[in-house]
Amino acid sequence: MSLLADLGRAARAYPTLLRVGFAEAVAYRAEMLVWMLTTTMPLVSLALWSAVAETAPVGRFTERGFAAYFLATLLIRQLTGSWLVWELNTEIRSGTLSRRLLRPIHPLITYSAENLAAIPLRFALTLPAAIVWLVVLEPGAFPRAPLDLLAMVLSLIGAWLINFFTMALIGSMAFYLESSTAIFDLWMVAFMVLSGYLVPLDLFPQAIRSVAHALPFRYTIAFPVEIATGLVRGQAMLRGLLIQWTYVLGVGAAAILAFRAGVKRYSAFGG
Amino acid sequence: MLRYLRLLGLGLRISISLGAQYRWNFLVDGLVSILYTILGLIPLYIAFHARPSLHGWTYATALVVVGWFSLLKGILDGAINPSLLSVVDQIRQGTLDFVLLKPADAQFLVSTAKFEPWKVVDGLAAIGIFAWAFHLLGRAPGGLDVLASLGLLGCATLVLYSIWILVVAAAFWVVRLDNLAYLFNSVFDFARWPVSVFRGALRIVFTFVIPIGIMTTYPAEALLGTLTLQTGLLAVAGSFGFVVLSRTVWTRAIGRYTSASS
C-alpha cells in the first residue's frame, strides 16, 4: 500500500522536479557546453579511422561509415550520459545527502529528474553535430520502419537507464568506502574497450565480439549507435533489445538495494 | 636563481610527503593509468592490422608517438595540472593575494605549488612502450637521436606549460574556468596520433594553435631518426614563441587581478 502511495506522490512531484532541473540546466548552460565539449574521444577515434579507411573500406566501414558511426557515438553519449556517480560521492562525503533524504521522495527519483531534465538542453546544443551526422549518414541507414524506430527509442532509453543505475550502484559504494570514483574509473576502462566507444565492435575478432555482446557495456552505447546507423536490424536487433532490458532490470534492482543498504549505514558527516 | 631552485626542491619535497600519505590512492591511480595506456594501444593495433602503413607510419613507429604521448600525459598530470588547477581556485576565492605578497615571482610560485609525484608511473609506461616499439623495429635508437628527442621533449613541455598559462590567464577575465582545464585535457588526447593523420582544418589547428606536432610527433620522429633539421629548428623556435607569448599575457593578466573581496 505505502509503496503505491509513495509512487503516486513521486509521479505527482515529477513534472515539478523536471521543471526545476531544466531551470538549473539553463542557468549553468555555459558550463554544460564546456563539459559537453570535453567529449572529444569519438572525434579522436574518427581522425584515426578515417585516415585508415581513406584508401579502401575496413570491414563494413567506409570513410563515411566511420564518420556516421563516431558522430552517432558522440551524440548518443551526450544524450544518455549521467553524472550521478560524482554527485553521489560528493553528497555522501559532505553530508548534503541528508537534505534529499528528508524529502518524502526517494533520492534516486530526484536524481533521475535532475539528470533527465538536462537532456533537452543537451539535445539543443548537439543539434549542429546531429545535422552533420544526418548529412554524412548513408541514405537508408537511418531507421525508417516503425519497428526499427521504436527499437531505436527503446535502446536509447535502455542505455540511459543502464548508465544511470550503474552510476547509482557504484556511487552507493561511497557509503562503505571513502570514495568510489576509483571503482568507477575501472568500470570506465572496461567500458572504453567493450562498448564500441573507441573501436566499433565489428572490427574486433569474433571471440572478443561475442564476449562484448554478452556484457552490459555494448548496451550503453554501441547498440543504439548500431541501430541508428543501420548496422543492426531484424533478429539480431530484437535479441539485443532483450539482453539490454534484462540488464536494465538487473542493474536497476541492484542499485536500489545497494542504495537502501547504504542509507542504513549513513551517518551524515556534520550534516 | 639558486633561490628559485631551492624553492622548487622544497615544493617537490612537500608534494612527495603529501603524496606518501595516500599510498592506496597511488596504487589505484597507477593501475588505472597503466590500464588507460594499454587501452590507447588497442585502436592502434586494430587500425594497423587493417593497414600496415598509414601516411608513412607503421605500427612500430606509431607506437613511439604513443610513448611520447604517455610521457607528456604524465608530465601534464603530474607537474602542470595540479598547480594550475589550484590557481583557478585561488583567483576565484581571492586567496591569490597571499601568493602575490610573497617575495618571489608569482608565475613561478603558482606553477610549482603542487606536484603529483606518483604520475611517474606514466613515464615508466612510456619507457615500456619505447622498448616494445624498438624491439619490433629490431634496432636500438641512436645516441644522437635520443639526445635530440630529449631536447624536443623539453620544447614540448614548454609548449604544454605555456598553453596552460594562457588558459589560467584567461581566468583573470572569466572567473569560472575550472572545467576549461578538463577541456584542454581532452583536446590533448588528439596528440596520441601522428599529426599527419589529420587533414584539412584540423591539421591547421593542430599545427599552429595547439601544436600537437611539437608535443609528440616531432620528438617521436627525432627518436626514430627521421626528423629533418629544419623541422626540429622550427619546433624549437615555435616553442620559444609560445613561452614569450604566455609570459606577456600572464604579466598583463596579473595586472588586472583585483582580488575577490574588492
Write the layout of secondary structure elements.
The complex is a heterodimer of chains A (271) and B (262).
Chain A: H1 2-27, H2 29-37, H3 41-52, H4 63-80, H5 84-94, H6 97-102, H7 107-117, H8 119-136, H9 146-172, H10 181-194, H11 206-214, H12 222-228, H13 234-265
Helix pairs in contact in A: 1-7, 3-4, 4-8, 4-12, 5-9, 9-12, 9-13
Chain B: H1 2-20, H2 23-50, H3 59-93, H4 96-101, H5 106-111, H6 120-137, H7 143-170, H8 178-188, H9 200-209, H10 212-224, H11 229-255
Description:
The complex is a heterodimer of chains A (271) and B (262). Chain A is mainly α and 271 residues long. Helix content of chain A is 74%, strand content 0%. Chain A contains 13 helices and no strands. In chain A, α9 (146-172) runs antiparallel to α12 (222-228). Chain B is mostly helical and 262 residues long. Helix content of chain B is 77%, strand content 0%. Chain B has eleven helices and no strands. In chain B, α10 runs antiparallel to α11. The radius of gyration of chain B is 19 Å and the shape is globular. The model of chain B has no long low-confidence stretch (mean pLDDT 84). The chains are: A mainly alpha (271), B mainly alpha (262). Chain A binds chain B through residues 31, 34-35, 37-41, 43-45, 47-49, 51-52, 55, 58-59, 182, 185-186, 189, 192-193, 198-199, 203-204, and chain B through 25, 28-29, 32, 35-36, 39, 42-44, 46-47, 50-51, 54-55, 176, 179-180, 182-183, 185-187, 189-190, 192-193, 197-199, 202.
